Amino acid sequence: ARDELRQREQDLAEFQRTMPTEEPPPEHELRAHTRLCAQLRADLSDLRVARAARRGSGGLTLTLATVIPALFIVALGVWRLVSGDPLLGTLLIAAGTVGGIVVATQWTRTAPAPSACRDLEQRVAAACERLSLPAEPPTHEVEQRDAALRDALARRAEYDRLATELHLRAERLRIRREETAPLHETYRQAADAAARAAAAWTEHRAAAGLPEQLSPAGALDFLRAAEAARDKLAAVAEAHGQLSALESARRVWEQQATSALQQAGQVSTAAPPSGEQLLARVSALHEALERRQEALRRVAAARAVVEGRLGRDSAAQAELATGRLSEWQARADHLATSLGEADQQLAAAAKRCRDAETARRHIEASADVPAAAAAVQAVTQDLRTLAHSWRALTLAGALVSRTLASFTEHHQPRVLARASSLFAHVTQGRYMRIVQEGLHQQLAVVDDHGARKTTAQLSRGTAEQLYLCVRLALAEEFGARAARLPLVMDEVLVNFDPQRARALCRVLGTLAPDQQVLLFTCHPGTRDMLREELGDAVACVELAGRDVSFEPASQPSPHPKRKGAVR
Please, are residues 112 and 54 in contact by the beta-carbon 8 Å criterion? Predict the structure, then answer.
């Protein structure tokens, strides 16, 4: 118990040395800063989109581009009215007027208000001050701050875990000390009792006359040896008594044997035989008795054999009693003849078997066998060719897997970091990070409380948002290292709630200046949402049967081939 307690104290001291020297900031403060960082990213994105929408001179262009066709339709209606077609003229005038009013109203509604921009600027400034960031920092600084906060959260969680473990170990040590305190007192009492017993043994050994070097255990062995010697002496005395009894019994037996032989007439009464003579005669009589019993056993065995073969049938026993040996011999000869015929049939069957074996050898030596062997060789060659192809394909697959693993190892961290940023923006900070876990590196998300969830635990809409953010991050990484290919998406906002759908629209707006984004949809609500969030940065192509109408973006772009589009 003392060794265990000492080991526990050493373990506790060693564990205390592993504790961090400085305590990280509180967890609630770190989580508040993490949520503030996510909100800052969203506000910066919204602020940039709003400024881009208000900086352009597309309002006048959009107004002229929509009012001129409306005026043309009104003029055409007046001409048809003057030409004598009042119905068509009235319809054209009404259509032109309504179209101009609707387009002008839509443009007025999509233009961001100055107060909204000021509110965003104030929120961004307040968040930057709390996070110790410069005013309107670039995206990579916000990402670095977010990564630093996540690392601080991880360190805080590890510190809390170590502190809890330290407290538990200290508490277990205290409980163990309380448990071992009675044991120490018991040990002291046992030591005192052992000392008293040793003194008593010394006195007893001196009184009994035992050697001084004899220990208690040795004394027990000594006493056991003495008891064993006493038992052996008693056994010797008992053996002497038994020998005397046997001698008396021998004399009685000799008298009885002599009397029995005299009665049987084997010896004369005048000169009694000695003991050896008596034994020899008794042995001879015993052997004669054994020979008689052996003869009786043989007779019984022969009778049992006969009964076993013939049974207890009275007719068979009567037949056996007749003793007609000649008839029995004739029957045996007939059976021998039948046995010879059976042997001849067996020899004929063996000859047919040998003939069949010879025919098989002739068939193997015929021309059909080489042809079959050639076919087998051809199939074997085909098998070798296929095996060679399989090895080549396997090697190619291994090379592709190695290349894919290398790409994943070098580029996956940046892709996951960018996807985490996009996913946090789309979910308004509900989920802060995307990670991979397990042997198969499956995707999982970390919410704003630090809890992990797999894709199976997410709703369908959230899972689609996760995969879409990962694909957008992959496209950005590929475009940064190779060519920026167009992003083509079809009905990606169907399962999103309105808030997250609008957030994703803003994300697409940040991608459109550097990469062509094509979004196909059959829902007018999706089109209107994009226009409300991105304003004139959207070029709309409407497909209705075979008629195609194109409504370009009013704001010119330095990359005319990289414009977002909505079907």
Answer: yes
- Higher pLDDT among residues 508 and 179, named by residue: 508
Extract the tokens encoding 272.
């009694």
Among residues 471, 466, 448, which one has the least CA distance to residue 456? 466
Angle, alpha carbons 168-172-176 (nearest 5°): 170
Predicted confidence (pLDDT) per residue in 354-395, tens digit: 888 888 888 777 767 777 778 888 999 999 999 988 988 888
Q: SS3 string of 61-94? A: HHHHHHHHHHHHHHHHHHHHHHCCCHHHHHHHHH
pLDDT of residue 142: 82
Percent of the chain residues past pLDDT 90, beyond the cut? 11
Sheet hosting strand 442-447, strand order edge to edge: 431-437, 442-447, 452-454
Which of 301, 252, 258 is CA-nearest to residue 278? 258
Structural domain containing residue 127: 2-181
Q: Does any domain span residue 287?
A: no
Average pLDDT over residues 313-339: 76
266 located within any domain: no
Provide the CATH number for the domain around residue 479.
Answer: 3.40.50.300
Q: Which two tokens stand for residue 305?
A: 């054999």
What pLDDT is recorded for position 567?
Answer: 34
d(CA 200, CA 192): 13
Question: HSE on the CB side for 387, CA within 13 Å?
Answer: 6
The identity of residue 96, as a single letter, is: G
Nearest CA-CA partner of 549 in 78, 57, 106, 66: 66
Task: State the distance between the two ends of the chain, measured CA to CA, in whole angstroms.
Answer: 80
* Cα 407 to Cα 399: distance, rounded to the nearest angstrom: 12
| Interior angle at CA 253, CA 252 and CA 254, nearest 5 | 95
pTM of the model: 0.31
pLDDT single digits (tens) 289-301: 888 888 888 878 8
Q: Which two structure tokens, joined as six digits, stand for 548?
A: 């195609």
> Are 21 and 142 found together in one domain?
yes
